[in-house]
């Protein structure tokens, strides 16, 4: 019976058919048969040091390439560790397929060793999930998983596979078609709605394009650029959408929201037409929803019908893929020839937006005695010039990086937006550097998040990844400290991170180079040295510990009520 | 306000969990839930009565329609519909009240499904409020034990069921109405 194949081999064959070249994972008891099949299979497996990082690394791979990523973990603790990475992918619409082992089907429900109800636990952590107890169901489920993960609004899909399915044998016939009658993907957009949208855009006096992660997921950057040039609208890109429009494009303002620029937020507050593209009116963007853009009508383009009018009512909804919708919209707009129109309202609006930009520009602050975090980001920007991949963690450094580093194209900025998972940066940079081996990758982390994913330094070394790890070290959980200082009478509770390891010794222990820089005059040289190093480099940058991120819209505030700087000098005990 | 949701779902393990999970994740309590296979045994029909925050009514239907296993979710509170519920009830009936109980049961259209020296087992169907009244009256005769089916609701308007066609791997499939297209991106 030589035409029989094991479940493990069938799984690998299905992955190959889906174009998978890399799996990020960690083996364990029930996945041993799968790892045995991998032993002499050309697919590349990257051994991370914690399952959560397998999901984050797969995400880094996806965010940098747009391909579907794959991660793998064993049953029980393997699967539960994976969960944070799955929810993170769900909130940022990142297509990953997670494979988990499950105890032998006859043992399910007996509290067997390393048994967890992965199917139940990950129900709300995924776009969809499968429990495969019968080898006959395996190939169909794998292809359905890839289809669901990558189509429509992308997201994570988990396939939980029992040990006996890995070990079983059957005759393998490749799957040729998928039938999911209840899974509807609307890509094209309603033609009449698109015509009305074009009309509204050219009638608006104070238009504002609000572009998000959806533009990047649907590869619609070129279309976005054409649209904003046709309409000549000021444009803001959300945290997830940075790079959707080049950072140096004349129509680009900056990021809006809680730590957005003055011009972006004033623009969003005063606009009469929001052109929302692949965004979800997140609370970090809108501030107090009732006070958000009170004079604006809203055109909302999204592939997910449940995003329409979820937070902000859409006056003109268009359900469809942003790229397809913008292609049609641009064609309509070209016919209308807006450049020949006289739009005096728009001229006044541009003057106003430029005035706001000049009034409170997002400019880095410098000091001669200590390294300001903004100074650090400005120096990285000077090296990157909008071309390097930047993976970040979550917190103050993430906001400063978003404010001060620009991106000339999409898929350069890799950050955990929706879930805000600390520990994301280091493993995400692993996935990105593996996907783009010749590109300069900065991994900007805080001293808090860095220590959450520290073991991945070994993965970096194993694969000789020349990642430039820039640890913005302020000795604090900075964002929490900032809130405690501003809103909790400076009662600093559990935010001091003493005991940071000596970076020189830490990097040396893993077999690569590291150093600390603490004086602003040495920052540039230190960064250049890190970048010049052929292998990985850990640069520990001691920055002014009490610096806060501004502008800031306090929680529950309206976006036009920004705090632009420190309210008054505050004594911070150290 | 109470919302009655009718769902046509794939008859697969986990389908109920996904739907109920959407409700429980929002901290809402289900008033009643019924599930049974349809004529096509690969599908199930569910009726869920749940008190939903008003501004979330449409959102929860959209979220349910997003579930892969859900073929169609509709809000029956929006259109004309008919709702029925069934009750099975054991009534303790001493000799002197047996006739009166049977009379009352007849008024409510209930049937006797079992009779013994202790009392009767009754079966009734009707609108939820009617059955509440029936239970109240029977309680006045003495101790009762009751099992209710939960509401089953039928929309009186025909709703077009839109299903996605099969997707050939690597190929583009055009939906019949030309507005939507499914594209399977193979890497």
Structure description:
By secondary structure, chain A is of the alpha/beta class. Chain A contains 22 helices and 20 strands. Chain A has three domains: 4-171, Thiamin diphosphate (ThDP)-binding fold, Pyr/PP domains (Rossmann fold, 3-Layer(aba) Sandwich), CATH 3.40.50.970; 191-359, 3-Layer(aba) Sandwich (Rossmann fold); 373-542, Thiamin diphosphate (ThDP)-binding fold, Pyr/PP domains (Rossmann fold, 3-Layer(aba) Sandwich). In chain A, helix 1 crosses helix 2 (32-38) and helix 15 (373-384) packs across helix 16. Chain A is globular and about 75 Å long. Chain B starts with a strand and ends with a strand. Chain B has helices at 15-24, 57-66, 98-107, 128-139; strands at 2-10, 30-37, 43-51, 70-75, 81-92, 111-115, 119-126, 144-148, 152-155, 167-168, 172-174, 181-183. In chain B, the strands form three sheets. In chain B, strands 5, 6, 7, 8 and 9 form a five-stranded antiparallel beta sheet that branches. Chain B has a four-stranded antiparallel beta sheet with strand order 2-3-1-4, covered by helices on one side. In chain B, strand 2 and strand 3 form a beta hairpin. Chain B folds into two domains: 2-78, Alpha-Beta Plaits; 82-152, Alpha-Beta Plaits. Strand 9 (177-178) of chain A pairs antiparallel with strand 10 (167-168) of chain B.
Helices and strands, with pairings:
The complex is a heterodimer of chains A (574) and B (187).
Chain A: E1 4-6, H1 7-17, E2 22-25, H2 32-38, E3 44-47, H3 51-65, E4 69-73, H4 77-91, E5 96-102, H5 118-121, E6 128-132, H6 138-150, E7 157-162, H7 163-167, E8 169-171, E9 177-178, H8 191-203, E10 207-211, H9 213-217, H10 221-231, E11 235-237, H11 262-270, E12 273-277, H12 283-286, E13 297-302, E14 316-319, H13 322-336, H14 344-359, H15 373-384, E15 389-392, H16 396-404, E16 413-414, H17 425-435, E17 441-446, H18 447-452, H19 456-462, E18 468-473, H20 478-487, H21 503-510, E19 513-517, H22 520-532, E20 537-542
Helix pairs in contact in A: 1-2, 1-6, 3-4, 3-17, 8-13, 10-13, 11-14, 15-16, 15-22
Chain B: E1 2-10, H1 15-24, E2 30-37, E3 43-51, H2 57-66, E4 70-75, E5 81-92, H3 98-107, E6 111-115, E7 119-126, H4 128-139, E8 144-148, E9 152-155, E10 167-168, E11 172-174, E12 181-183
Antiparallel strand pairs in B: 1-3, 1-4, 2-3, 5-7, 5-8, 5-9, 6-7, 11-12
């Amino acid at each position: 019976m030589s035409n029989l194949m094991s479940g493990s081999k069938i799984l690998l064959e299905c992955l190959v058919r889906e174009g998978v070249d890399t799996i990020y994972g960690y083996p364990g008891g029930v996945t041993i048969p799968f790892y045995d099949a991998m032993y002499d299979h050309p697919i590349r497996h990257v051994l991370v040091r914690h399952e959560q990082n397998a999901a984050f690394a797969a995400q880094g791979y996806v965010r940098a390439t747009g391909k579907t990523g794959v991660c793998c973990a064993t049953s029980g603790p393997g699967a539960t560790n994976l969960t944070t990475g799955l929810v993170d992918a769900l909130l940022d619409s990142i297509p990953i397929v997670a494979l988990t082992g499950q105890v032998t089907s006859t043992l399910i429900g007996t509290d067997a060793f390393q048994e967890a109800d992965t199917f139940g636990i990950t129900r709300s952590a995924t776009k969809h999930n499968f429990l495969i107890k019968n080898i006959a169901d395996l190939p169909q489920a794998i292809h359905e998983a890839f289809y669901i993960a990558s189509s429509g609004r992308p997201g994570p899909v988990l396939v939980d596979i029992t040990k006996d399915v890995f070990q079983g044998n059957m005759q393998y016939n490749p799957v040729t078609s998928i039938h999911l009658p209840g899974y509807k993907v609307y890509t094209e957009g309603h033609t009449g709605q698109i015509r009305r949208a074009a009309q509204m855009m050219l009638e608006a006096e104070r238009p504002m394009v609000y572009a998000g992660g959806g533009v990047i997921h649907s590869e619609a950057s070129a279309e976005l650029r054409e649209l904003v040039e046709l309409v000549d609208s000021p444009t803001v890109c959300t945290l997830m959408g940075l790079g959707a429009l080049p950072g140096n494009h004349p129509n680009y303002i900056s990021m809006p929201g809680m730590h957005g620029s003055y011009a972006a937020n004033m623009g969003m507050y005063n606009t009469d037409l929001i052109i929302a593209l692949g965004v979800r009116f997140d609370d970090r963007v809108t501030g107090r929803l009732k006070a958000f853009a009170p004079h604006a009508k809203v055109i909302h383009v999204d592939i997910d019908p449940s995003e329409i009018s979820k937070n902000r009512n859409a006056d003109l909804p268009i359900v469809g893929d942003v790229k397809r919708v913008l292609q049609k919209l641009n064609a309509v707009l070209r016919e209308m020839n807006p450049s020949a129109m006289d739009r005096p309202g728009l001229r006044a609006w541009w003057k106003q937006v430029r005035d706001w930009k000049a009034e409170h520009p997002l400019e880095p602050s410098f000091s001669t005695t200590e390294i300001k975090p903004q100074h650090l980001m400005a120096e990285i920007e000077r090296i990157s010039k909008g071309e390097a991949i930047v993976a970040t963690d979550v917190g103050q450094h993430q906001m400063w990086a978003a404010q001060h580093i620009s991106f000339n194209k999409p898929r350069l900025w890799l950050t955990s937006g929706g879930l805000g998972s600390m520990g994301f940066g280091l493993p995400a940079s692993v996935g990105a550097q593996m996907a783009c081996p010749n590109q300069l990758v900065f991994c900007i982390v805080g001293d808090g998040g860095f220590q959450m994913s520290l073991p991945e330094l070994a993965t970096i070394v194993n694969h000789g990844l020349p990642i430039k790890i820039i640890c913005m070290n302020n000795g604090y959980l900075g964002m929490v400290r900032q809130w405690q200082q501003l809103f909790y009478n400076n009662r600093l509770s559990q935010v001091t991170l003493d005991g940071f390891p000596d970076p020189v010794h830490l990097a040396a222990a893993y077999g690569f180079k590291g150093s600390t820089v603490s004086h602003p005059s040495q920052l540039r040289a230190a960064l250049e040295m890190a970048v010049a190093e052929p292998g990985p480099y850990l640069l520990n940058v001691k920055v002014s510990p009490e610096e806060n991120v501004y502008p800031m819209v306090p929680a529950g505030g309206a976006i036009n009520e920004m705090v632009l700087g420190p309210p008054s000098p505050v004594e911070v005990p150290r | 306000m109470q919302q009655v949701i009718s769902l046509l779902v794939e008859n697969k393990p986990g389908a109920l969990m996904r739907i109920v999970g959407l409700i429980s994740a929002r901290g809402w309590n289900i008033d009643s839930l019924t599930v049974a296979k349809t004529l096509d045994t690969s599908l199930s029909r569910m009726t869920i009565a749940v008190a939903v925050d008003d501004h979330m009514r449409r959102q929860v239907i959209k979220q349910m329609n997003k579930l892969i296993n859900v073929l169609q979710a509709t809000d029956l509170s929006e259109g004309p519909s008919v709702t029925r519920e069934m009750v099975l009830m054991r009534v303790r009936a001493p000799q002197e009240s047996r006739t009166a109980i049977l009379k009352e049961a007849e008024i409510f259209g209930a049937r006797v499904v079992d009779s013994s020296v202790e009392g009767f087992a009754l079966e009734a169907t009707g609108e939820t409020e009617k059955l509440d009244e029936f239970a109240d009256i029977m309680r006045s005769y003495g101790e009762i034990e009751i099992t209710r089916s939960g509401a089953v609701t039928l929309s009186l308007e025909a709703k077009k069921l839109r299903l996605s066609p099969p997707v050939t791997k690597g190929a583009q499939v055009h939906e019949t109405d030309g507005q939507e297209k499914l594209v399977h991106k193979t890497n």
